[in-house]
């Protein structure tokens, strides 16, 4: 039995310690906002926060998450009003949407570290997230917009 | 134009030569073709017809870290009435971004009937820093019933990128992906 803190809730799951965190999130806990894209740390669809840092849950053993705070897209904001979520809605970023949970989770760490990210910051922070639908232009714009909203104090 | 109308390319092509020329005219105007911008970039243009829609792009290429980089794109689309302009624009932008990635590095190879590139470590998909900063999309306004938009803006990206590469290097690129070694052209 492994005890996890996910989105401020405690879960006890019967999983082997080397089970990828992504499997535990989706199949044991039922939080399916986090997506499986490649399983080999290439696409970023599975990004979640571990003690505030972006990790790829497909290559993160669940044992590594024990005693840490896991945040998934479902826990980013209790009311779905994180500046990034507002900006994503405002600019209609998504197409198929498959990559977007991972994109937003990567961008959330960027915004925490850099209140006003430059295009170069965005290039660097988002290079690990693939979007097959090609929504990169809008993702970039939405990150800039979210930074603005965040600056105005429009936080969750 | 007269010739295009009398002798359409392909036996079963039912394209309307005026609408085909229409997207080229629109993209010419919007991109300022032959204007001062022409000097700043290696520019390429291509147009396409499928799913009863017409698409044309002008791609503006520079280099970034020694690699060809499409910095900006102008698109003109005729797909009849556009119901949701913002979503339609997003779709065209996506087709352009993905088209650039596929044209430059989206190669698939086979061995014993199996695809060799079995995940994203070997099958390269375009990423944020490789995508253009701007894709300006213009729709022809008319009252024709809506037609396809998922596919039509995608293929002409390849032609436009190939033409921009020709402008930049003086070499013709016929083999996709264009980052792969290009075969020698047979003597004409
Ligand atoms: S599923 Fe984890 S990086 Fe692709
Ligand atoms: S929106 Fe479809 S993969 Fe990003």
UniProtKB/TrEMBL annotation, chain A:
Residues 1-76 form the 2Fe-2S ferredoxin-type domain. Coiled coil: none annotated. InterPro entries: 2Fe-2S-bd, 2Fe-2S-bd_dom_sf, 2Fe-2S_ferredoxin-like_sf, 2Fe-2S_ferredoxin-type, 2Fe2S_fd_BS, Beta-grasp_dom_sf, Diverse_Oxidoreductases. Pfam families: Fer2, Fer2_2. Keywords: 2Fe-2S, Iron, Iron-sulfur, Metal-binding, Oxidoreductase. This is (2Fe-2S)-binding protein.
């Amino acid at each position: 039995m492994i005890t996890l803190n996910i989105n401020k809730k405690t879960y006890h799951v019967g999983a082997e310690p080397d089970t990828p965190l992504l499997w535990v999130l989706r199949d044991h806990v039922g939080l399916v906002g986090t997506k499986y894209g490649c399983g080999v740390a290439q696409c970023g669809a599975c990004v979640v926060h571990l003690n505030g840092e972006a990790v790829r849950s497909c290559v993160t053993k669940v044992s590594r998450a024990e005693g840490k705070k896991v945040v998934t897209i479902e826990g980013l904001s209790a009311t779905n009003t994180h500046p990034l979520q507002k900006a994503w809605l405002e600019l209609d970023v998504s197409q198929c949407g498959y990559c977007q949970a991972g994109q937003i989770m990567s961008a959330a760490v960027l915004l925490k570290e850099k209140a006003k990210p430059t295009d170069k910051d965005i290039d660097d922070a988002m290079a690990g997230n693939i979007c097959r639908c090609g929504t990169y232009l809008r993702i970039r714009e939405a990150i800039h917009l979210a930074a603005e909203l965040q600056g105005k104090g429009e936080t969750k | 134009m007269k010739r295009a109308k009398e002798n359409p390319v392909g036996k079963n092509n039912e394209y309307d030569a005026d609408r085909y020329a229409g997207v080229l005219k629109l993209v010419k105007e919007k991109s300022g073709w032959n204007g001062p911008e022409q000097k700043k970039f290696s520019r390429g243009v291509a147009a396409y017809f499928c799913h009863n829609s017409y698409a044309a792009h002008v791609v503006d290429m520079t280099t970034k870290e020694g690699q060809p980089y499409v910095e900006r794109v102008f698109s003109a689309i005729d797909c009849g009435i556009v119901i949701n302009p913002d979503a339609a624009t997003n779709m065209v932008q996506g087709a352009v971004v993905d088209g650039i990635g596929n044209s430059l590095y989206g190669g698939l190879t086979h061995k014993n009937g199996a695809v060799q590139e079995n995940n994203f470590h070997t099958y390269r998909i375009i990423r944020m820093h490789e995508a253009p900063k701007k894709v300006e999309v213009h729709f022809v306004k008319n009252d024709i019933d809506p037609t396809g938009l998922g596919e039509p803006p995608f293929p002409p990206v390849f032609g436009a990128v190939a033409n921009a590469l020709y402008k930049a290097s003086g070499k013709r690129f016929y083999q996709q992906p264009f980052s792969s070694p290009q075969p020698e052209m047979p003597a004409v």
